[in-house]
Amino acid sequence: MAKLPDHVGIDFGTHSVKAVELAGISSSKPRLVNLGSQATPKGVINSEDVADQKKLADVLKRLYDSSRIKNRQVVMALPEFSVFTRFFELPGVKKEELKDAVYYEAKQYIPLPLNEVQLDYVPIGFNTEKNAPRVLVVAAAKKVVNIYVNIAAQAGLDLLSIETESVAMGRAMYKSMGKDALVMLDFGANSTDMSIISEGYLVFSQSIAIGSDSLTQAIVNKFNFDNQRAEEFKRNYGVVETVLEGKIYSVLTPIIESIMVEVRRGVEFFKSKTLSIAPTDYVLSGDGALLPGLKEYVSKSLNANVMIAMPWNNIVIDKKFEDIAMKGAPSYSVAIGLALKDE
């Protein structure tokens, strides 16, 4: 597989588009060259509407202009909810038979005709007891892939590769933490993406359809606040039981606990499919990871060792970027992972 040149990682979020450019991506200490962020127009993510795609392309142009990014070679991520990911073990399948075997297995599980999807797989080791190669299959609807190809073209960017958010985040977390067994929870606006890394490989990924905006809406509904005030209360008080007589805590915890229920189900599914011990280390990333009290709540709910992502670890950052890079650092995890892709 060909090595990629230094490039810009671009992460499309519901509320913002983030870009990170690194130099020396194959080295032990890559260097931050530039970064930037721009607000995402409402309702344009994954839209097939040509006008919406133009809006996103215009956002990229503004991001490049405001951040003065020069490198026009980019790697982008597809939103996790639009991607199908599945772990397979294929007993008795030889190396030369792998491609056909993956195609046959995928056809049984992917909810779209295979001629309508872009499908790829990654070998992730071998189960010697079962004489079974292990693979991670990733598939996305061609029409979704084409959306981002079109956006890049309209923005005048050279799109080198497209991958999933969970793969990018796994790369960023391994670079920053050095752990080869990890559960990653990415708290986004509309969903919480859960991924499991085992023996250095991504082996499980799912998108839970509850995100940070659901927490804001719960405060709006309970206290009749406007959206901006509800957002401020969420960010300031979070799930800390001892503030405001626990009023915000009592509104938000049922929603967060519903996410935890799905996380536990995901872990049990992973264990049943792989017959492996689940990782006990959890890392929280995304804009929602900095919610006050969230780390402690997740740790107690799941009885796990929980950390907030610090994706800038092991990356050299010039002083002029320190403030912007460190403010909301967990939200840059995917963009950093995309920028680190070297093949």
Write up what this structure looks like.
With 343 residues, the protein is of the alpha/beta class. The chain contains 10 helices and 13 strands. It has a 5-stranded mixed beta sheet. A 5-stranded mixed beta sheet has the order 11-10-9-12-13, with helices on both faces. The protein is globular, with a radius of gyration of 20 Å. The protein starts with 7 loop residues before the first strand and ends with a helix.
Main traits of this protein?
343 residues; alpha/beta; five-stranded mixed sheet; 10 helices
Overview in brief:
The chain is of the alpha/beta class and 343 residues long. It is built from ten helices and 13 strands. Strands 3-2-1-4-8 form a five-stranded mixed beta sheet.
Secondary-structure blueprint:
Blueprint lengths: L7 E5 L3 E8 L7 E9 L10 H18 L5 E6 L4 E7 L8 H12 L7 E11 L4 E10 H13 L3 E7 H13 L4 E6 L4 E7 L2 E8 L3 H12 L3 H11 L9 H28 L6 E5 L8 H9 L2 E4 L10 H8 L6 H7 L4
Parallel strand pairs: 1-4, 4-8, 9-12, 12-13
Antiparallel strand pairs: 1-2, 2-3, 5-7, 6-7, 9-10, 10-11
